[in-house]
Amino acid sequence: SESLRNGPSRIEDRRLRQQRVYEVLERVGLDPAQSDRYPHAFSGGQRQRIGIARALAPKPKIVIADEPVSALDVSVQAQILNLFQDLQRDLGLTYLFVSHDLNVVSNISDRVAVMYAGRIVEIAPTDEIYSSPRHPYTAALLSAVLTPEYTPNKSRREPLQGHPPNPANLPPGCSFAPRCSFASSNCQQNSPTLECDDEGRLVACHRKNELTLSGITRVSGNAVA
């Protein structure tokens, strides 16, 4: 009798789950008829779309995406980034998007938190991060980004020296101080806290209100390759 009572409900649950699978596959641009295929039958871009579909299945308000396009070709990266933007517009999603690629960050983010050695060193709207960084590490990251414009009079940016510290054995003071050309004795002895600078931006740097650092022009909009 127990199986008779639960049988129809299990069938209905299975039907609803299958319907949801079809819905999210269509939402990410895949054919629901392919839902019974094995992973090896899909391309890298299709597998990434399947991963996004799985994240959408429980109807979340926030999606955490950790390096979602780092293993993809540039043209496929653009397609996936455009899909993220379309889903955000249509479903009202919030993303926590983790990436080491600043070109990707520029295209997908409204606000950026920069981390060094496991600590956030700067938080600001994306346009401000790119045009006028306030932390030396942020400026160093941006100096490594290839940009299409060429300005003959632009001051030469020196490459970042040294190596990242061991997170299990961080140096005293600011973790970035051993690699920072602006570091003072205060930086080497005391760890800065993340607090507002003169412009209301969150920066973890003892000299945040003294330095004028170089940024780059942000390339935003749809990531069409």
Topology, element by element:
Elements: H1 2-27, H2 44-56, E1 62-66, H3 74-91, E2 94-98, H4 102-108, E3 111-116, E4 119-125, H5 126-131, H6 136-143, H7 185-189, E5 195-196, E6 202-203
Parallel strand pairs: 1-2
Antiparallel strand pairs: 3-4, 4-6, 5-6
- Please state the overall shape, judged from the principal axes of the Cα atoms: elongated
Tell me the quaternary state.
single chain
State the major sheet: 4 strands, antiparallel
Number of E strands: 6
- Average pLDDT works out at 87
Query: Low-confidence parts lasting 5 or more residues at pLDDT below 50?
Result: 1-6
Query: From N to C, what is the helix and strand string?
Result: HHEHEHEEHHHEE
The share of residues in extended strands comes to: 5-15%
Number of helices: 7
The separation of the N and C termini measures 60 Å
Q: Structural class of the helices, strands and pairings?
A: alpha+beta
- Strand arrangement, major sheet: 3-4-6-5
Q: Helix fraction? A: 25-40%
Number of domains: 2
Radius of gyration: 23 Å
